[in-house]
Write a structure and sequence with these properties.
Blueprint: E1 3-14, E2 17-28, E3 32-36, H1 43-50, E4 58-63, H2 73-77, E5 79-82, H3 94-104, H4 110-119, H5 133-144, E6 151-155, H6 163-180, E7 183-187, H7 191-197, E8 200-205, E9 208-214, H8 215-221, E10 223-227, H9 229-234, E11 240-245, E12 250-254, H10 271-279
Parallel strand pairs: 3-7, 3-8, 5-6, 6-7
Antiparallel strand pairs: 1-2, 1-4, 8-9, 10-12, 11-12
Length: about 280
């Protein structure tokens, strides 16, 4: 088994609104998958569907090779989860939370929990409901990293953090993957974070996956070309990813610049530019 998560053709609608359309991608062992897209694109719905918090209309989700993780308590203990809104008891302090988690998780690592709490400069005697959003995110990540999970699902976990704190948190995530050969599915609007630590990139728009690629291959092979209508017809359909229309030309994202026809000038594209391009693109 080479993947921690295998998502295949999952679909989901709320009433008449289709929010996921045949979503397919994997989270391999030893990887950090950057899951990017605008608000409302389907990222949080994908997270909740993967965790079995909401039902899916079709498709399959396997975690550690199993389809229905709610049947397996031990499997759930191997997953660390951080959502955009904190889901920890607000009336407790960090000291009290530590006692709760010692009873809740067989593999609770108190030493690592307090190491992270100290590294993130969190007050251990202050009630959690007095924490800022950034402090709450740091605490949630500290918990997720302290019960020997093999898989982390992090939905906007770096939101609300100052640049220095984000740097510390990203370093902890990279260390987790390198030491455990675990995996992370990380959604973020901060492209510099994704660029820094992701090994794979998955972009979702309107519930559809537009891009699913290893980051190194993206930088090596992908490019943007500015072409007119006639040149667009000459483009190999196999390398076409998405396009943006301007007054007199198209900007086209291609997956292999080596297969471009002669005379088409390829332009490199950054992660930030990719996010904007795909958000505003058409098929």
């Amino acid at each position: 088994m080479s993947n921690l998560i295998e998502i295949e053709n999952i679909s989901k609608s709320f009433g008449d609104k289709v929010v996921l359309k045949d979503v397919t991608f994997n989270v391999p062992y030893g990887s950090i998958v950057g899951f990017i897209g605008d608000n409302g694109a389907g990222k949080s719905t994908t997270f909740k569907t993967v965790l079995g918090l909401i039902s899916k209309d079709g498709g399959t989700v396997k975690i550690f090779g199993e389809e229905n993780i709610n049947k397996y308590v031990k499997i759930k203990e191997n997953i660390g989860v951080v959502f955009d809104a904190m889901n920890l008891p607000a009336h407790l302090t960090i000291k009290q939370l530590n006692k709760v988690f010692k009873k809740l998780f067989d593999s609770w690592d108190q030493a690592n929990f307090y190491r992270l709490v100290n590294a993130f400069s969190l007050p251990i005697d202050k009630k959690v409901n007095k924490f800022s959003r950034g402090m709450s995110m740091k605490l949630s990540v500290s918990v997720a990293l302290s019960h020997n999970a093999k898989l982390l699902l992090l939905d906007e976990a770096t939101g609300g953090l100052d640049p220095s704190s984000r740097e510390d948190l990203l370093d902890e995530l990279k260390s987790f993957v390198s030491k455990s050969n675990g995996g992370i599915l990380l959604s973020s609007h901060i492209m510099s974070d994704v660029e820094k630590i992701a090994s794979h990139i998955v972009f979702i728009k309107d519930g559809e996956i537009l891009l699913n690629e290893e980051k190194d291959k993206f930088y090596e092979n992908y490019a943007v070309v500015d072409i007119d209508v006639e040149q667009l017809t000459l483009l190999n359909k196999e390398i076409f990813v998405a396009k943006r229309k301007y007054d007199s030309y198209f900007s086209v994202l291609v997956s292999d610049k080596k297969k471009l026809p002669n005379g088409m000038a390829a332009q490199t594209i950054s992660m930030e530019e990719l996010s904007v391009f795909l958000s505003r693109s058409e098929k």
